[in-house]
Predict the 3D structure of the following.
Amino acid sequence: MIQSSVLQADILIVDDTPENLRLLSSMLAEQGYKVRKATNGKQALKAIEAQAPDLILLDIMMPEMNGYQIAQHLKALPPTREIPIIFLSALNELMDKVLAFDVGGVDYITKPFQVQEVLVRVRTQITLREQQKQLLEQNQKLQQEIKERQKVESALRVYIHAVSHDLRNPVTGMLIVLKNLLAKKSSESPSTLMVPTHILEQMANSCDRQLNLIHSLVETSDMGLQGISVNGQPLDLVNFTQQLIAEWQPIFAKNRVSLNNELPSNLPAVKADSTQLWRVFDNLISNAIKYNPPGLTLTLSAEIISEKKAKSKSYTRWIKYTISDDGIGVKSEEADELFELYKRGKNVGKIKGLGLGLYLCRQIINAHGGKIGVIPNENSGASFWFTLPLF
């Protein structure tokens, strides 16, 4: 492979003596090299600018611009820095050779030329140049592979965090219910526990949602780990919110959360994926409880809004859903970056968190075609809102 590339190598000969040019070009052309010639520094630089050669044979003693100056110029420019230069000269003093290597030369041939010596030295440098190119290509491929692997590892980390993050809330709620039931067991019959039907139904629904969430997360991993897939179906947000409140009730009670449900009863259906949307509510509600002291008041509200289509006179209608609290609030300078991956507010103190929840919320709402944001109001609570398309 290298030998084939060597025979096709492009060599530029720079010498102000025509006889030297003819001799060198003739012997190199016979070996299969592509040969170009220049009689002075200006011609040489112009030829190199037009097409960088694989090797330069450079005479030292030339008028106007000598070989040392040409080499210094080439080594100062990134595009030509790596081109190997073999100096040609009748100068045979040690300092001349030292200077040639100091300015970037890779070899030095003394005039008059010995044909076999020139051919061997040229072949050696062309081979080294080809190996250098191959090594550079391999390094570039390796760097690309490293970047791709880092991207996959980062995506995998997000996926694993998402699984643990989103399963935590439903498991916590069910655990509270189970502990409350166990705490109420009768001392007269400790091995028997009477459980109301509605609690069993609630627990069964919670398990169904957890199973659906697991299926959704597995599908997400199959799509490239960070992709969000939504299955938009008609969804009654009023009924959906009531189910959500019922499942969160144990956690609300434990944290003394008061709830104001201000949703209009005649709210039209939206087109949404209930499993993915549940993740949005879980994250927004759990954040409100986690980052505020007990005794929080949550307010749920919704309204219909219209938005003008781009380059059109028509409008699209959306439901804007808002979850507000009366907690410590959000600083305005932090509002824009809260939805970025692994970003957290600066007022969270020592409360543990990944900075993943709001990022997932944005991914899910964007996948529905909607928008999400926060109305900052430091020291007076926060209002997180998102939009969903009407069905």
